[in-house]
Structure formats: C-alpha cells, structure tokens
C-alpha cells in the first residue's frame, strides 16, 4: 500500500527519501543547529539498534536549521522528514506569530505531539542514550493496555510546580477541582484516578512526577479530548502558572484531566554515578549522574534487569552545558567519562536523607538509594554513541556507517 506523505512547504524531505516508509509509527525529535550532532548520532544509534521507523525532526522556524544542517540530515538518513511546526501553525492562525516564539525550547515537544499526523508516536530527547530498540516498548503490557508509556522523574520535595501555591491551594489539587471539564466534553467532572491519588505529587511529597525524555502515545486511542487538553496546557495554562519544569508534566496531566487511562513504568527513575563528583569514593550509596530508565516490564524476580535508555548530555558531550559554563557547572553535571555504577532497579520512592544527615546533596542525587555495577553492554553502547557524535563533530563521516561494538 502506498504511503501518503503530507505535501506542504512546512514539511521537507530529501531527494532520496524512502516514500514507502509507514506513517503508522514515528520517532519524534526536536532539533536545531546547536543540537545537530547530538540528534544525528541518536538517529544513527536507532538505526544500529534495528529501528527503521520514520523520524520526524521538528523545529520552530526555518532559521533553526541551516541549509548545511538540512543537507547533512538528508544525506545520512533517507527516512527523516523535517517539520516546521511553528510556521505551519502560525500560518493557519492556530497560534499567533508571537506565541510561536515561545516554543523555541522544550515546549516544542508537546506541540510536536499535538501536530503530528502519525498514530503511534515516540517522543525522544536527542541526548537520550538508547541501549535497546525502543520500539519494543509498544509490545509491553502498559502500552498494549493503554496506548501510553510514561516514565517517572526523581522524587523531590518542595513547594513548586505541581505542589506550588495557586490562589491559596496546592496547584495539582486546585487544577483537579477548578478545571473546566465541560469545555472539553469530559462528562464526569472531578474524578481523579486511583493512580493520581497515590502519586507523590498529589500527596504533596514531590514537585515532579514525570520525566519526558521518552514519551510514547497512541494518538488514536488517546483521542481528541486528550490532545485538546494538551494544547490548552501549552498555549494557555503554562502562561498562567508554572506547573512543570519544562514540558514534563503536561502529558500525563492531559490524560488525567480527560479521564483516559494511561500507564507509567512500574519502576522509578535511576541514575548512574558521576565520576567528576566522585560518587563512588565519597558516598557510594548515593549516585548523582545522568538518569537511567529500565525496560518497563513488571518482573521483580528477574535475576538480571535490562536498561532501556539513559538521558544526559554529560555522557556524550565534553562540554554538556557549553564551554562558557565549565567554571560555573556543578561537578555532577560535568562530562562523565566512565560511569561504573547505577542505582538499583526499584519502585518509585523517596530518597533516604537519613543516610547522610550532615551532607548537602545536589538535587539530581538519589540519596541512600544504593548502587550496583552497570552491565558490560552499557560501555559498549556508550562508546558507539560517542564515536558517532565525535565523527560528526570532526567531519569524519565514514565512521557513521559502522554499527560494530567492541568488547
């Protein structure tokens, strides 16, 4: 069956684009020139892992990607299309030109989710380090049952974002009670799910719930109510109240308010150790590096656990926050050359501050949650990803054709 691809000046494809690639599934990334090598090395890693889905590279305005960047993208992969979502929506009056400018950051991610015509969407951050074809997640229970898979963020106490004060109430509580359900044809009105009332955020114990470095949604099963509420969050609510660190909480909250079932990984977030921070030397039960997520399958008795991905520029880029910020960066955010340990897989829980009562940790640290050695395959995958990143940065493009890993 012939695939029909959108024809518009806001969609761009290379001369060698594979017109037979399906639009049933796609991986969505958001790109601009400064993140090009990170994004392209992610695309190469996905192909090395055996994923050949359509990749939609979203951007906000044509100026975000130079002609040189566009040529490199199209030369290196024939299943990539570029989508200028801001120009498309502003040209149709869906958002104003002024509002479009507010999406030149992480808020473009939910805008891309709303915009794409693809059914099974996987949203990835370009600094994800993927260790297994992420398409496998769609075959697991959570996605099969609900058409979604979300991943948890760290449990962090405080009075901001979801737990912040909003007209005398905690934001999340007020949102649930004051939301205009009728406007979005949600017939029940206030009716929080069992999942929500058991979250750390609802109990006022964490300012974060969800991490959005990997988000999977079946848009057909989600339906228009979810997408319309998602759009309300990113075009109205975020300007009224800062409910989230970036876009993170937008996705699950849209499902919750629409009263459409959704699924989180059964496992809490983990992290790797930070070598610059000397985690294993100074506090080996409390790791502070980049986040790590396990395959979201409920198998607590398994002898071995499988890592799905990590997220963090500090594992790839020697100057993860830019060369001008090296002297200002926290030690655990510096380039992390050879992590050796990870926080063990466990259900989401609070950190154990009693393990180090007199020490002040950075917010990224999972204090008192333990450490176990990373599997050998982690270093092999990380080396391949770094090789592709540096080959792009140095212009040695022949290396990109190689998927070999070394022991």
From TrEMBL:
Record keywords, A-Z: Glycoprotein, Glycosyltransferase, Membrane, Signal-anchor, Transferase, Transmembrane, Transmembrane helix
GO molecular function, one term: alpha-1,3-mannosyltransferase activity
UniProt keyword Transmembrane, yes or no: yes
Alphabetical list of InterPro entries matching this protein: Alpha_mannosyltransferase (IPR022751), Nucleotide-diphossugar_trans (IPR029044)
Subcellular location: Membrane
Protein name: Uncharacterized protein
Main location: membrane
Family affiliation: Belongs to the MNN1/MNT family.
Native organism taxonomy: Eukaryota, Sar, Stramenopiles, Oomycota, Peronosporomycetes
Domain of life: Eukaryota
Entries under Pfam families matching the protein: Mannosyl_trans3 (PF11051)
Annotated membrane topology: Single-pass type II membrane protein
Cellular compartments per GO CC: Golgi apparatus; membrane
Record-level GO BP terms: protein O-linked glycosylation
